[in-house]
Amino acid sequence: MALSVDSALYRWQRLGAKSAPQTVSESTPLLFSVRDRLKLNLNKWRIVFSNNGRQQRGWDQASRFYSGNKIQTTKYTWLTFLPKNLFKQFHRLANLYFLFLVVLNWFPQMEVFHREITMIPLIVVLLASMIKDAIEDYKKYQFDKKINSSKSRVYDKKDHAYVEKCWKDVRVGDFVQLQCNETIPADILLLYSSDQNGICHLETANLDGETNLKQRRVVMGFSSQNTSFEPEFFQNTIICEMPNNDLNKFKGYMEQPNHERIGFNIENLLLRGCTIRNTEVAIGIVIYAGHETKAMLNNNGPRYKRSKIERRMNVDIFLCVGLLFTMCLVGSIGHGIWSGSFPEHPPYDVPDENGNFLSPVLSGFYMFLTMIILLQVLIPISLYVSIELVKLGQVFLIHNDIDLYDEEADLPIQCRALNITEDLGQIQYIFSDKTGTLTENKMVFRRCTVDGHEFSHQENAKRLETHKELDLEDEDFAKLQQFTLPQMNIERPATYQRTMRPLRRSQSARAHFQGHTRSRSLGRRDSNQSQVAFSSTIEKDVTPDSRLLRRVREAALRTENLSPFIHMKTATSFTDFFLALAICNTVVVSTTTEPRQRVTVPPPIKPSGITLEKIHQIFQRLKLVSLSQSFSSSQSSSDLGASFSAKNTEEHLATLDCCDNDDSCCDSSRGAGLQDKSSTDFGSASLDEVFQSVTHGTLPTDFCYEAESPDEAALVYAAQAYSFTLVSRTPEQVTVRLPQGTLLTFDILYTLGFDSVRKRMSVVVRHPLTKEIIVYTKGADSVIMDLLEDPADTNAERRMKRIKDKTQKHLDYYARDGLRTLCIAKKVLSEDDFQKWANFRQEAEAAIDNRDELLMETAQHLETKLTLLGATGIEDRLQDGVPDTIAALREAGIQIWVLTGDKQETAVNIAYSCKLLDQRDTVFTINTENKETCESKLFGFIPTSLPASEIPGPEFGLVIDGRTLDIILQGGLEERFLELARLCRSVLCCRSTPLQKSIVVKLVRRQLKVMTLSIGDGANDVSMIQAADVGIGISGQEGMQAVMASDFAISRFKHLKKLLLVHGHWCYARLAKMVIYFFYKNVCYVNLLFWYQFFCGFSGNTMIDYWQMIFFNLFFTSLPPLVFGVLDRDVSAETLLSLPELYKNGQNSEIYKLSTFIITMLDAFYQSLVCFFVPYLAYKDSDIDVFSFGNPINTVSLLTIILHQALEMKTWTLFHWITIIGSVVIYLTFSLIYNAVCVACNPPTDPYWIMEKQLSEPAFYLVCLITPAIALLPRFEYFIFALRGTFGASLLLKAQQLDKLPKGQRDCEIQKLRSRKQATSDAPVASAAPNEDLDQRNSHFLSSGIASPGQDSGNLTKGKAKNFNCGSHRRSVSAVTL
Amino acid sequence: GGGAVKTRKPDNTAFKQQRLPAWQPILTAGTVLPAFFIIGLIFIPIGIGIFVTSNNIREYEIDYTGIEPSSPCNKCLNVSWDSTPPCTCTINFTLEHSFESNVFMYYGLSNFYQNHRRYVKSRDDSQLNGDNSSLLNPSKECEPYRTNEDKPIAPCGAIANSMFNDTLELYHVENDTRTAITLIKKGIAWWTDKNVKFRNPTGDGNNLTALFQGTTKPVNWPKPVYMLDSEPDNNGFINEDFIVWMRTAALPTFRKLYRLIERKSNLQPTLQAGKYSLDITYNYPVHSFDGRKRMILSTISWMGGKNPFLGIAYITVGSICFFLGVVLLIIHHKYGNRNTSADIPN
Q1: First-to-last C-alpha distance (Å) of chain B
Q2: What confidence tens digit (pLDDT) does each residue in A1307-1316 have?
Q3: Of the four, A749, A870, A974, A1311, which is 20 to 30 A from A1337 by CA?
Q4: Who among B50, B120, B257 is closest to A1186 (CB)?
Q5: Model pTM score
Q6: What values do phi and psi take at B156, rounded to 5?
Q7: What is the H or E stretch that residue A431 is in?
Q8: What CA–CA distance (Å, rounded) separates A985 from B4?
């Protein structure tokens, strides 16, 4: 229901009417055009007028409408702080409860405490939060101020020049001039760039942490205006979408005065917070400012999750409320009966102010409310505050763990969610991404197949082996690096000095816990390694396969020597293959010598004057270099010779893309005539040309490739190894140097970017020699294989089929080897077809609605009938310590699922290598597209495997792919699937989409009611991370999206081990015990007051002074549980790591569950009974007064409560001692001082001299000695018997005992313990029994297979039976893929 | 500087890495055994000591409420606050054993809830502390015993208003001759109460009548506060009977110190065994709320009055601990080594 134009117009008029009486005038010509041509909805679109005086009226109206660039992240101002903050705080239920009590206490009928005293807890809590908020807000205010007052050059319409303005004064519609390394003040539409191609480079590290540069383009039509941009003449009106937080989407168009529209998208938008790089000057118009910028809209605070313990706790709090209600009811009924039992009013029944007495019923009702006030502490409100404090402490300690610190990236663990630390100790299911999480996501080119021929690249494999060894010896590695890359070391620090400052500043503008940027520290020795994205030496250096190299050279030579139009099919396949590798990507080239200087054109040709001797010298050098590289010298020199001798041919053939020093570029490849011209023009320079290219060839480190995905970079480096060097890339052109040194410049006609739906990318280029329009496509094999052309003539068809089959075979082999596979294909388009398609594409690009769908459609339209060139296998190395970590987590009882988008074979292979699957495991594989078969399979597996699960025999693994998952999820087979999955040790979901990942996580979490953890590193894992109870992001190679969405961000997978096994265990144990203790403490203490009601006519009186009572919770007993919650350590980290089984303690919620809660409650009741009745019996029928009676009770309960805590503590550090003893000392000191000083300061009940008097009486000490002893005796017993158990000592206790042993002995004991356990678990495997069992199961399978419909299940069982009969070491039950 | 490169590497300190030196006690039979024996060995002697001490205390108690029709005080059962002339009665009793040391004379009340919430609060401590403004303008807490006929009540409040006002006199009866026993009425209140917490209002001169000018007596009182006693240092707010009453009892059955009987000489017991009579001026009505009134004579020990509970408790707990110790010892010897595995010493 889009608003009509008229209503939009009306809105503008109304806005305008406020400022000026005359409404629509000639100054807003746009509106007429809008009326004529557009259906514009102002709720959907934003209209931006330029602030240059030309659209003054429009701008005036709009600027009022759009937010300015001033940011205010603060919540309060000086004036609004108090009311706003209070309002916010009273949204919390706890505070409302307090308030309710305060109000209740205000009524004289129910006044238990002084009105003021009841307010103390509330005021303390409010004040504490208020101070915290105020400090936070002030910090934010200062940040804002700093940001707001940073300077930027903005066009001033009066001065007709750019003037310096504060960021906060920048308005929508302003023209902003940006210099290199400047931070962008707002979201700006790029209108001009000093770059002649209209490109502006951005570093988005502040936004998403990615350090590789991104390209932004000047809006189409403006790029041609090479002359400097004059804001004064800008007359266009910009229409774009409303502000949103999608960093990757933006669309809109520019309306020219002649009603022509120019579309633009995210490619043209400079985002606030990013830094301009490599571009001298850029000018743009502000589209979104301030809080409407995409960066600010993305700026969310830390996440708030509720942990399992807290959920459990909330239930128990309701139990407490029930308890409170019961106690109040007892009090109220008791009081009613008591006061009704007197025939006349006794002297101690005091009437109200007017001398009237209440009826027993009414006074009973009042007593109910009074009791609520009295027993308020039963609801442990302080628990919330304490838990928050404890979690802060826990987070601090986790954050500071040196074992979770990554040296390489200089990153400690980041705890982004502050309140789910203990969830780490209760994880039952881990969902992990594979790439970048289990593996390093450092892609290394391993092997390739071209034209059906496989090239194994054994030299490369060898090199990688040695590299691994080097990797272990860090120091040596560093030296080696310095040795091989001297110039990098010299250059880099300087670069960094320059780039660091603005980077840091804007980084601080982000919210506190988002500061997970990857800015590297200065001068670190490994900084040069990881500085440029995806270009560590291991990825860059690819040792070419000698066989392939020879083939490539031959092919290249043939192409050069023969006419380019007569193709040898194989020869072009090779060149095409490598050309595709070099071209078909979005890799950006930069040199290493200049600070991140982008290479957009081949280096300028130096003036001639180079003698032949010099060239000879160069060749000498070249030889040496080639020698040092691993291919043979003879070969390289001959190649070079060939390329040199071929220079004359080149003159005719090669398109020489060249530039003069004065920047007037001759765009040679635009037309044939131009080509002729250039070849004649630069014929004389051809020698230098060769010289140039050759020198470049000798120094492969000259270029740095910055890719969006590491695969791309790996492929480009691979192409480079075969001398197909990507030299430069602009949006329009890409230049590749061929092995001969020829520079080929392709016109890029279109780039169809990669997306996860198509799973492929394509570039459409015009070949400079043949003028053919070629589509190079690169993508997942499953997709590409389906798009291949079926050639008409049978001969070619057979050939193609052979190649396809062979390649598929190789691909399968690669996948089995754990390599990531990509297929490379090409297609030659006829000019007509291309024109047709191009028109279609243009239409799609100009479309506003469903543009994305249209673009997708056009892309799919193009990527058909491809010719297969070959395929590549890229290795993604397993991260350090992954198998070990997985084994440990597995031992800890955690089920691990891997959800990956990778191919099944690749994933299975990685799963074996990281010990996710064991060779002994029985692996079920389900690949089907048919619901029935899927169901029958699930059905077939389950019943037979059920009995097996009871015996610790061979374990099960489940492999499932995305399509099958879809069927399961849509077909209502979830339960069956989970039933099966639960039996499996590990589950592998391949080829799954991000959506599927999150659905699976949610499914498991909801249906099985288990604690889940998701870990991933890429944007595709975000939904999965968010779906799980605990989301962990790996700050790896793929940007920051995962980290931003996560609760904890780590840098290596192996850190998960300590995070869960040690910190998780500790946090859970600490917090669970603390929560239980808090319940105990409050119930125990409050019950003392309750028991007293039976002796004071249920009048709601207390025997303890109010202050001492309030301070009891606030000061005297608050610190020990806090210290306990932060620092207690039941078992040492070493033991926890070496005995992962200890994790099960938290997993099964053994510390805090209903039974322990009830036991603790009963214990609390018992202890409070003891603490009340021992003093009662001791002082019964004596002349004891109220406070003298309460004082020993208070004291003994304090001692009991503190000693109870002491019993819980497993470690006594200095802090523990100080707080335990300190609490008692503080109590005594306070009581002594208070009782001595306060004569009449607390009317009407002053506890004057009580403590002093009692301390002089032996009876007091006797009571204080025996009461805790009686109170804690059962607990003592409980501890001993529960921990020892009649069934033998628990593992936890054993571990605690182990901790006390000296290190060597402890290791020895742990070894023994583990080996004993292994022996018991392995025993059945060793025996013959399970094998029989398996056979039996087989027959089950068979019978179920026959019964179930569909022939595949028959296949399945056959396959299985065969597998079993073979008795292969890997007993994999693999179903036949459909 | 080049060396001071700031990294985000956490400090490798014992605290941050959670490696603080710590004592790690483990509760096992082995470690707890000694504790049980020690507790047992300490508690049992203490318990015996307390028990013996408590048993050595002499105590004698008479209920003079007069519920039973045979009681001499039965006639006074229905007195009211302002009955004139006061009802008197005499109760005779016999002490079987002599009281050797100083004797404390208590009056005891039962079912009297001096700890009722509103009752406890119905007082003005600053008035009792001698604050002149509070004297004439007592705290609101005293309502409805704050003013009477527009005059402030001194002392105000329900506690003061309901002050115990029976008079007890003790006679030793020997051969039908009644010898009055000297009852000392000073020194029964806490020293700090008498000297710090309770003070008469200050002003010109020491004439209490003048100082309490403008106030009126509590409703139930026969006489104003400045006529409680003849001696000036025991009159007004610092009258010790008054102070004792104002220290509200913790439990509904309580006793309050009434008088002291000092031992005269080392040769004679304070109260020798024999016949005694107690003269009671019965003013205080308790019948309406089923209250009881008692007179208690008691000697005291180092740990207060007679109370066998603590002694028994100590002996019991001590025994239990000892017993548990033995049980644990047996468990430890029989099963301990097997369970915790011989190779892990405790």
Answers
A1: 53
A2: 888 888 777 7
A3: A974
A4: B120
A5: 0.75
A6: -85, 170
A7: strand A429-432
A8: 49
| Residue A712 is assigned to a ligand binding site | yes
Tokens 């009106």 correspond to: A237
Q: Is the pLDDT of residue A1278 over 80?
A: no
User: What secondary structure letter does DSSP report for B93?
Assistant: E
In a domain, B187, yes or no: yes
Helix A612-628 × helix A686-698 angle, to 10°: 20
The answer, yes or no, to whether the previous bond of A700 is cis (omega within 30 of 0) is: no
pLDDT of amino acid A1318: 64
| Residue % of chain A over a pLDDT of 90 | 16
A368 by DSSP, 3-state: which?
helix
Which amino acid is it at A937? K
**Is residue B1 assigned to a domain?**
no
CA distance A630 to A636: 10
Lowest mean pLDDT segment, chosen from A108-117, A807-816, A1263-1272: A108-117
- Give the tens place of pLDDT for each residue, A1144-1159: 888 888 888 888 899 8
How far apart, in whole angstroms, are the C-alpha atoms of residue A958 and residue A1002?
19
Quote the CA–CA distance of A835 and A1372 in Å, as a whole number: 53
The residues pairing with B178 across neighbouring beta strands, listed in sequence order, are B173
Active site residue A1128: no
Query: In the predicted model, what is the mean pLDDT of chain A?
Result: 74
Distance CA A977, CA A90 (A): 46
Alpha helices in A847-913 (DSSP H): 851-862, 882-891, 904-913
In the prediction, which pLDDT does B5 show?
A: 56
List the alpha helices (DSSP H) in A629-662: 633-645, 647-653
Q: What would the two tokens of residue A107 be?
A: 């009524």
Are the beta carbons of A942 and A979 closer than 8 angstroms?
yes
A405-409, A744-748, A965-969, A1318-1322: the lowest-pLDDT one: A1318-1322
Q: Which residue reads 């080829």 in tokens?
A: A991
Q: Which two tokens stand for residue A1083?
A: 């119930």
Among A972, A1021, A1017, A983, residue whose Cα is nearest residue A1001: A1021
A230 vs A188, A192, A447, CA distance in Å?
16, 9, 53
Please report residues of B whose CB lies closer than 8 A to that of A1095: 115, 250-252
| Residue B205 domain boundaries | 56-299
B291 within some domain: yes
Q: How confident is the model at residue A914 (pLDDT cuts 50, 70, 90)?
A: confident
Is pLDDT at A289 greater than 70 in this prediction?
A: yes
| Partner-chain contact A1179 B26, CB within 8 Å | no
Q: Which two tokens stand for residue A1282?
A: 């529960």
Residue A599 near residue A589 (C-beta atoms within 8 A):
yes
pLDDT for residue A620 is more than 60: no
CB distance A1284–B29 less than 8 Å?
A: yes
Tell which residue, A468, A456, A320, has the closest CA to residue A380. Answer: A320
Residue A778 is labelled as binding a ligand: yes
At A91-102, the pLDDT tens digits run: 777 778 888 888
Find the closest chain A residue to B43 by CA distance: A1266
A543: Cβ contacts below 8 Å, ≥ 6 apart = A457, A459, A460, A462, A463, A630, A721
Q: Which of A187, A195, A208, A433 is catalytic?
A: A433
Q: Is residue B336 a part of any domain in this protein?
A: no
A82: which 2 tokens? Answer: 């108090």
Number of domains in chain B: 1
Phi-psi category of residue B251: left, alpha or beta, with phi > 0 → left and psi -120 to 50 → alpha: beta
